[in-house]
TrEMBL record:
The lineage of its organism: Bacteria, Bacillati, Cyanobacteriota, Cyanophyceae, Gloeobacterales. InterPro entries: Nuclease_put_TT1808, Restrct_endonuc-II-like, Uma2. It holds the Pfam family Uma2. This is Putative restriction endonuclease domain-containing protein. Residues 27-183 form the Putative restriction endonuclease domain. Signal peptide: none annotated.
Length: 208
C-alpha cells in the first residue's frame, strides 16, 4: 500500500491531466487527505471501495467544464428554471464507501443534499467507474462531455436490466431539463469564442 503521509511528494504530477490510482486506502485515510487538501482546486479526489483516484485538471479540462456551466446558467435564466449550483463539492458517504467531486453539479427545483445533475468532462479514459460513484450517491442524471459530444444517463428505479451502466439508462435527451436543446448546447460548447457561443446559445433558446 502507498502511504498518504507525504502528500506533497506523491502528487508532483508532470502531466497536468495525469491520473493516479492508489489501492487499499482506508476511509479514514481518504478523509485525512481531503482535510489536508482543504479547499485546494489543484486536485480532484474520488474514492470507491478502498481505491483512491487523484487527478490534476488541465486547462483544457477546466475550460470545457466552465464553458458548459456558463451556458447552462444562460439556459436557467432564460427559461426561469429554479436551480442551485453545487459545483465541485465533495459528496461522500462512509456507509456506501464512496466519495467524489464532479466537475459541475446542480440541484433542480429545490436545494438538496445530493445534486440531481452532475456533469463530467472526460479527456482521458480509465480510473474509478464514474457511474457507479454517482449511483451510490443517488444522483439522478449524469452527463459526460467527451469527444465533443454529450452522453446522458438517467438513474432508473428498476435497474435489473441496466447492469452494464450501473442502473443508469442512456438517453438522448435530458429528463431533468427536457426543453434543453442538447445539439445546440454541444455546438456552442465547441465554439472557441466564449462570447459568440453565449450569444448563439441565448438566441437559440429564445427562438424555440
Amino acid at each position: 500500500m502507498v502511504l498518504l503521509d507525504d502528500l506533497s511528494q506523491r502528487l508532483k504530477l508532470d502531466d497536468p491531466e495525469e491520473r493516479r490510482i492508489i489501492a487499499d486506502v482506508t476511509w479514514s485515510q481518504y478523509e485525512a487527505l481531503l482535510a489536508e487538501l482543504g479547499d485546494s482546486l489543484a486536485y480532484r479526489v474520488s474514492y470507491l471501495d478502498g481505491v483512491l483516484e487523484i487527478v490534476a485538471p488541465s486547462r483544457r479540462h477546466e475550460t470545457g467544464k466552465t464553458r458548459i456551466g456558463d451556458l447552462l446558467l444562460i439556459y436557467f435564466l432564460e427559461t426561469d428554471t429554479e436551480f442551485f449550483p453545487t459545483g465541485s463539492t465533495t459528496f461522500r458517504s462512509a456507509e456506501r464507501q464512496v466519495g467524489t467531486e464532479p466537475d459541475e453539479s446542480y440541484c433542480i427545483g429545490m436545494d438538496k443534499e445530493i445534486p440531481d445533475l452532475v456533469i463530467e468532462v472526460i479527456l482521458t479514459s480509465g480510473g474509478i467507474n464514474r457511474l457507479e460513484r454517482f449511483r451510490r450517491l443517488g444522483v439522478r442524471e449524469v452527463w459526460f462531455w467527451q469527444n465533443d459530444r454529450f452522453s446522458i444517463y438517467h438513474l432508473r428505479e428498476d435497474s435489473a436490466q441496466l447492469t452494464d451502466t450501473y442502473g443508469y439508462e442512456a438517453i438522448a435527451q435530458s429528463e431533468l431539463l427536457p426543453d434543453l436543446d442538447i445539439n445546440l448546447l454541444s455546438q456552442c460548447v465547441q465554439n472557441p469564442n466564449s462570447l459568440a457561443a453565449a450569444k448563439e446559445f441565448r438566441q437559440g433558446i429564445r427562438e424555440r
